[in-house]
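Hi C.,

You asked whether I'd gotten around to modeling the 357-residue construct. I have! Everything is below, sequence then structure, no commentary in between.
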Amino acid sequence: MTDIDTRALLPGLDPSGGFDWRDGERRVVFGRACHDRAAEILSDRDEPYAVLCSPRAASALPPGVGEGATEVVQLGPGPVAELSAPLVESELPDLLVAFGGGRLIDSAKAVVAARGRGAAAALPTTLSGAEMTAVHRMPEGRSGSMVRPRLVLWDPAALDSAPEATLRASAMNAVAHAAEALWVRIANPVSSLAAAEGVRFIASGLDAVAGGGFDHDELGLGALLCGYALDGTSLSFHHVVSQSLVHTVGSPHAETNAVVLPLVVESMADRAPAAIHALGDALGVAGAAEAVAGRLRELAGGTPGLRALAERPDRAADVVEAVLGRSRQLELIADPPGEEELRALVDRAIDGPAGGR
């Protein structure tokens, strides 16, 4: 029997062709030049909107988007809970359009969630996956139901100026979304299929560098699918460790995910062998968890420890305490890790795969 590449038979799986996906109340437009159409698409909604972006991105807004906004709000560095809090009671309109990475998109979602009205729109420029999830922090002192963007305009051309190291680290964050979706207790077939296909696209997109550069179309669609998979399940072991490191030792978000993911994959070998096999198959490797972890390190461009990148690298014990304090999310995997295993993993994350106590 002749092998048939089913992906080649399905136009919807060709990221270079783009697509317009209606998912309930959500619309996802994917494809090159869709940011150039953003002003037109937003005007079709016939409602006022404000733009949230970084100071650096303010001069790079898609044509007409800034001009059509009632206000362009430039958010500086800082956590989502702090950045979003002053905007809740502001006079900004109900539709908030985020142009940028996960921090900007999460801030728009947080404001909408705290207000209990309105909608967020996302024009991603990174592989964060935030545009596809109802996962975000709330503004300080506020509560509410989590929200996901109602409109997503995903233009792979937004990645064209990103440095290689940045894209590799961001891509590993996306793969981590898929990995969690595969191994949590509440995994489901839809999320698992999206996760596996998302990882395939990301691995293929990163491998394309040998031909002269990354395939940004594949990376973008892969991140979108991985985010969709996480939204249908939950974050767990990997994200709890990564987030605790970021907040406690002050290491950068994407790079922390890239370092932690191979370590967590090795820890999950006996807890979720089917999930590790599926992840390895999507990455194009067979064998034990060590082979999968090795492939992840290869795609990440090598994963040295976080010590040189962290502001407070000697707080491993505090990281472990923070992780154990999130037992509800740890319990979404089989046989949640205890203090000793977590300390060994955190030490290796900080000091490198060969490090540890």
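If it helps when you're writing up: The chain has a mean pLDDT of 93.

Thanks,
B.
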